[in-house]
Request: fold
Amino acid sequence: MNDLKNLFGEDKQAEDSAETESTAAGKNDDFPEPASFEDAMSELEALVRELESGRLPLQDSIDVYKKARSLAAWCYKSLTEFQGELKKLGLDEDGNFRLDDLPPVE
Reply:
């Protein structure tokens, strides 16, 4: 049965799916992880300015775009993880303060 799975590429499909999920979640082994959110945003802004300048050859533009996309994904992942830690200050029916979770980002 394992031979049939390999023949039809089921194991390869599972590997490809896992790789796609890790990249979508902001993990990209081609680029080092930023030291901080602020560093990532600064670098992302510089990369966008470089792309918008129009001075890069095509292949360099593609490489810069990939790096910028990786940084943007990392920033998004960082923000969504942090959002889970934030609370909203509110009042209950009796007028007492309470902390509520913020709604998830869509």
The first strand starts at residue 87 and ends at 91.
